[in-house]
Amino acid sequence: MPEFATRLLAWHARAGRHDLPWQRPRTPYRVWLSEIMLQQTQVATVIPYFERFTARFATLPDLAAAPLDEVLHLWTGLGYYARARNLHRAAQQVCEQHSGQLPSELEALSALPGIGRSTAAAILAQAHGQRQPILDGNVKRVLCRHRAVPGWPGETAVQKQLWRIADALTPAGQAADYTQAIMDLGALVCTRARPRCADCPVSADCLARAAGSVADYPQPRPRRALPQRRTCLLLLRRADGSVLLERRPPAGIWGGLWSLPQYEGDLDSLSEWCRQRYGLLPGALQAGDGFVHTFSHFRLHITPLECPVSPADAVLDAPDRLWYNPINPPRLGLAAPVRRLLFA
């Protein structure tokens, strides 16, 4: 066993995380669900979502059989909603193609929606004990510092180098423990800010620490200015307090979620737009306080526009529109800014 792994496993036995909810029991389904939720999201944030999810969808077939709206409803607030849509699609494919059991081969598992090479490897290592190197964000940071790997980890050449290092360091045995250990090391000790090098079990031969350059690794993604976009979200409200919602297209921002209607035209044309699109007659318009919602690739400046409307029946003809009453809300997945406006 590589000395790196020996020291890491000894540290994990005394200081690692052993009581995470997906470790009790550590089934392929629960490990898969946790790995998807943990993508770009911290453990403390994920735990309550994981517990609610597994309480409702105890098994993979339960998830596959559920309406997408309910899946997105339980995901609301966790962000990166493509993960939830892919999770649902993958569960359905597993039921259709693999008799309801997640594949135990890397290639077949990686072929499912939302499961990349590292996620598949983590599932197989933790749920089946297979020797599979992983390379999630925490592991990239650990390896970049330990081996002083230059460049941004998102670059193809840097990724290839990190995969070679990860493979060389992964032991033949104790796959589940090692996988959890190296993820824990990045999450608890070799953190992005203020790493605790004095507590690190592999600091003795860490090249970045020896050079006094831990903060320089991993090197950041080359900076670029985020584009700025603007939109209005319409709170078209009936007399009973309910507002009109529309389901977003499956692809794109907030894909598959329910959102307030977006309007980006001239305010003088809003009344005619509402008449043509919804058959509604808007009343007096009132603008609310604007705010900014930041996506990974742009910033969206949102202005809420409150507007009483009548009559209300015409919009019910469309399958992807509904009247949503925040006092007695249906179980739907809502875009975060919409939830903010409805429940402020």
From TrEMBL:
Keywords noted in UniProt: 4Fe-4S, DNA damage, DNA repair, Glycosidase, Hydrolase, Iron, Iron-sulfur, Metal-binding
Stored InterPro entries: A/G_AdeGlyc_MutY (IPR005760), DNA_glycosylase (IPR011257), Endouclease-III_FeS-bd_BS (IPR004035), HhH-GPD_domain (IPR003265), HhH_base_excis_C (IPR023170), MIG/MutY (IPR044298), MutY_C (IPR029119), NUDIX_hydrolase-like_dom_sf (IPR015797)
SMART domains recorded: ENDO3c (SM00478)
Domain HhH-GPD: 37-188
Any single Pfam family the record assigns to this protein: HhH-GPD
Ranges that cross the membrane: none
GO biological process: base-excision repair; mismatch repair
Metal-binding is among the record's keywords: yes
Swiss-Prot/TrEMBL cofactor(s): [4Fe-4S] cluster
Example GO molecular function: metal ion binding
Reaction equation(s) it catalyzes: Hydrolyzes free adenine bases from 7,8-dihydro-8-oxoguanine:adenine mismatched double-stranded DNA, leaving an apurinic site
Manner of cofactor binding, per the entry note: Binds 1 [4Fe-4S] cluster.
Top-rank lineage group of the source organism: Bacteria
EC number, as in UniProt: 3.2.2.31
Functional description taken from the UniProt entry: Adenine glycosylase active on G-A mispairs. MutY also corrects error-prone DNA synthesis past GO lesions which are due to the oxidatively damaged form of guanine: 7,8-dihydro-8-oxoguanine (8-oxo-dGTP).
Family statement: Belongs to the Nth/MutY family.
Protein name per UniProt: Adenine DNA glycosylase
Record organism: Immundisolibacter cernigliae
Lineage: Bacteria, Pseudomonadati, Pseudomonadota, Gammaproteobacteria, Immundisolibacterales
